[in-house]
Structure formats: C-alpha cells, structure tokens
Write a structure and sequence with these properties.
It is a single chain. With about 375 residues, this protein is α+β, with helices and mostly antiparallel strands. It has two domains: about 150 residues, 2,3-Dihydroxybiphenyl 1,2-Dioxygenase, domain 1; about 200 residues, 2,3-Dihydroxybiphenyl 1,2-Dioxygenase, domain 1. It is built from nine helices and 17 strands. The strands form two sheets. A nine-stranded mixed sheet has the order 6-7-8-5-1-4-3-2-9. The protein has an eight-stranded mixed sheet with strand order 11-12-13-10-14-17-16-15, with helices on both faces. Strand 7 and strand 8 form a beta hairpin. The two termini are about 25 Å apart. Bound molecules: fe (ii) ion. Fe (ii) ion binds next to strand 10 and strand 14.
Length: about 375
C-alpha cells in the first residue's frame, strides 16, 4: 500500500523548526574530469558558467567548476594530483554526488542540533571569508559517503563561496533549458538500511516520512524495490530513500550498489515549468532519455484523469504522468550520465501534486530493465 504517513502542515512555522532549511544550496559531484563535465552541463543541460577554483586561485589540490541554472548550482570537482580524498572517492565510486549542501540561516546551530541528535560529523562549523563577506559551513554524514553541508550565507555577497572566483566564458554561453530548482534527490541504500535512514532523517534533521511504497507497489515481473519519501517541514527538501527487495532478477538498486560500490545518490530531479519544451530542447542537445512503450499512453487518461497537455507530444517524448491527492505531475528520466550505470537525472513538472504517485514506477522500472538487459546486468 502507498500511504500518506504524515501530510505536510499547511502552515509552516520556520521559527518552530529546530532545523529550518531554506533550500538546496548546491550539489557537488566528484568527477574524473571537472572541466569536461562542466562543459556537458552547459552545452547539453543549459547551465551557465558561474565560478571556478583551481591553480589560478591558489588551490593546488583540486579544480572545481561551478555552473548554475535558475536556482540550481552544481559543482564539479577533480583532483590535480594522485593520492587525494577526491581521487580515492572517484576510484571507488566513479563519478557521483558527494555533497548535498543545504542553505540554512545558522550553520553552527544546524550542526550542533544535528550532532546532539546523533549525526556523525564531517566538518565542524568554519567561517570562510573574502573581501565580499563571509559564510559559515559545517557538515554531517548521510548514507554511504554522501554528506550534507550546511551553508549560512546571509553575510556573503561573492559569486559562490570564498576561494572561488567568477568563471567567465564570453564566447560560449548556451541558453537555459528551463530547469529551475532541485525538486528532490533520491538515495539508494543497502537492504535493511532504508528504515535506518528514515530514522536518521526524522531524528537528526526533523524530517517526516510523507510516503511509503513497498515491493507490491514497486515491482515488475522480474524486480522490486521499496521506497520511503522523507521531507523537511516546509517541503523544500525531499529525499526519497530506496532499498532493494527480493525479485527474480537483479533490480536497478542492486545494479547501482554493485557498480557504485556502495550507497549513494541515484538521481537528482530538477523542476521545469514546461516539461514539453524543456525535454524537446534537452533531446536536441543530445541528452538521452529512457524509452517508454507507446502502450503506456493508451490508458493514460483513464489512470490519471483529464490533464492540460495533449497526449501526443508526451508520447513522442516519453514523458510520464502520475497523480497524488492534490494534483498531477509530469516526469521523465534520463539514461545514466557517466561511465558506470549509476546516477541519472529526472525532469519534473508539478501541476498541483506535491508528492509522488505510484503509477509510474512500473513503467520506469520496465524501461530500466530494458537498459539492464542490454548491459547484461539484469
Ligand atoms: Fe524521482
């Protein structure tokens, strides 16, 4: 059964929340070639150049490129020499998400509250400054090697963070594809760890479980998984957590855990106001999406009721539609975006729905199984 475990409060009181989170500040990926990764995110996904850190800024160990699109900021970091923490992370996991940074009013208080409630420290609060002001950052571990960094930046006016300079690319600035903000970020954890992480987000960050999908909801003929959706009080941060379930064949979560060599971020969902335009543009720039069989669309309106969009463009592009109690949503998933079959992206447009439906899981899973089949990992 899918259940609405704890509906989000209609009126949210920031002051009453021990862990007020204002939004996703940035997501940092550890990658083997930050320069080329940043170019892909600009050319294919429509991000623009924002900031840079490396040899020219006095950073002898790492090079980082920061790109942005509306409220989304991605950082791509590569080591400049062997034997670094970042290099070890890439050797083990391949390219992937290391940091989900959360924008907070007070990074010292956020850290103290989290540690008091049992979080493992990644970085004690530190003040970082330059001529434009200062930030305070602190950090805690989540699942696997993923960390959350709390960023307090109300006294900072620089381009990104101290240590970075503006990255200017006067000759190459592809236009936006309409991506606006990070809607949610999903983690894959080992069998038995989903409830542990649910408890972590409840106790340490004050999140509530808003949805639960068991292996009856999320299964195909061959594979299954379980998922619980955690949200903070104002609904701006949503972290679904997946774990594998018994199935006849190896599920996508098993495949991820095998190739990532551990727990990590499975996908990052980015929101748009016009998914048809955004996906048309992304496709034309070479972004690859999972293929959905056209039979999915035969029963679409029976399943989700009337929607504003014409079915044909959704069918042409492979966009999925689902519904919750409050409205509907449109979503589509890219193929995995690095050498290993691990992380991918979701593009989502919400039309009233604040959480997730369960109707798309089967279509999504079968699409992923077809990819797994080709990889010989099913
Ligand atoms: Fe998602």
């Amino acid at each position: 059964m899918s259940i609405l475990a704890t509906p989000l409060p209609k009126v949210y009181d920031n002051a009453a929340d021990f862990m007020p989170l204002l939004g996703t500040d940035y997501i940092e990926f550890y990658v083997s070639n930050s320069k080329q990764a940043a170019h892909y995110y600009k050319s294919a996904l429509g991000f623009k150049s924002l900031a840079y850190s490396g040899l020219e800024t006095g950073n002898r160990d790492y090079e980082s490129y920061v790109v942005e699109q509306d409220k989304i900021k991605f950082v791509f970091t590569s080591p400049l020499k062997s034997g670094t923490d970042v290099g070890r992370h890439i050797d083990k996991h391949g390219d992937g998400v290391k940091v989900t940074a959360l924008w907070v009013p007070d990074a010292t208080k956020a850290y103290e509250e989290a540690i008091k409630r049992g979080a493992k420290s990644y970085m004690e609060p530190q003040r970082e400054e330059d001529e434009t002001g200062f930030v305070v950052r602190s950090g805690i571990f989540s699942y696997g090697e993923v960390v959350h960094i709390f960023v307090e930046r109300n006294e900072y006016n620089g381009v990104f963070l101290p240590g970075f300079r503006k990255w200017e690319t006067p000759h190459y600035n592809p236009k936006s594809t309409g991506l606006k903000y990070v809607d949610h970020m999903v983690g894959n954890v080992e069998l038995g760890n989903m409830d542990k992480m649910v408890k972590f987000y409840e106790e340490v960050l004050g999140f509530a479980q808003i949805l639960s999908f068991d292996d009856k909801d999320i299964s195909t003929e061959y594979t299954a998984l379980m998922s619980k959706v955690m949200s903070n009080g104002n609904g701006r941060i949503k972290f679904p957590i997946n774990e594998p379930a018994e199935g006849l064949k190896k599920s996508q979560v098993d495949e991820y855990l095998e190739f990532y060599e551990g727990e990590g971020v499975q996908h990052v969902a980015m929101a748009t106001d016009n998914i048809i335009e955004t996906v048309t543009e992304l496709r034309s720039r070479g972004v690859e999406f999972l293929n959905i069989p056209t039979t999915y669309y035969d029963v679409l309106e029976d399943r989700v009721g009337p929607i504003d969009e014409d079915i044909q463009p959704l069918k042409d592009l492979g966009i999925l539609v689902d519904r919750d109690e409050e409205g509907y949503l449109l979503q589509i998933f890219t193929k995995t975006v690095q050498a290993r079959p691990t992380m991918f992206f979701e593009i989502i447009q919400r039309k009233g729905a604040q959480s997730f439906g369960k109707g798309n899981f089967k279509a999504l899973f079968e699409a992923i199984e077809r990819e797994q089949e080709l990889r010989g990992t099913l």
